[in-house]
Amino acid sequence: MGRRIVTGATPPAGPSGGVPVPTTDDYLSRLAKNIPAEIVGLYLFVTGVIPETPGPSNATAQWVVFAVCCVLTFVYLWHATRREGGKPLWPQVVLATIAFPVWVFAIGGPFKAFTWYQSWIAALALGFTTVVFGMFEPAPGS
């Protein structure tokens, strides 16, 4: 399974010369492809390595890792959704780039340092964001 959401475009005829059948990702496939799981995993690994010492250096390290992973999400999805020599699927790139901070918010990450942070609000934000992003269907042939 590729990272790019299949938008209903008709694939070229296969090597057997058969008739190409249009394919489209269903809701669950779109939902999974909009979650930047690789970058969330990277974030969890790197922040797990940061020593848990109280103070500004720990908070700074967490914010730096968060910022770098936000940029990596965009770059990774831009690259992963490109067709051979073609354009990336911009809606998916944007949605996944928005989804990453929501996932980190739900995990806690550097947001836990804020007095207003509530894990139940973060969980609600993650749930609703994930469901809504899965509903988005890029235009056929995108």
Could you describe the 3D structure shown?
The chain is mainly α. It has one domain (27-135). 56% of the residues lie in helices and 0% in strands. It starts with 26 loop residues before the first helix and ends in a 7-residue tail after the last helix.
Tally of distinct domains: 1
Shape: elongated
Structural class: mainly alpha
How many strands? 0
Question: How can the largest sheet be summarized?
Answer: none
What would you report as the Rg, rounded to the nearest angstrom? 18 Å
List unreliable stretches of 5+ residues. none
Q: Helicity range of the residues?
A: 55-70%
Q: How confident overall, as mean pLDDT?
A: 87
Strand content: under 5%
Terminal-residue CA separation: 18 Å
How many H/I helices?
5
Topology:
Blueprint: H1 27-33, H2 37-49, H3 56-80, H4 90-107, H5 119-135
Question: What attributes characterize this protein structure?
Answer:
142 residues; 5 helices; mainly alpha; elongated
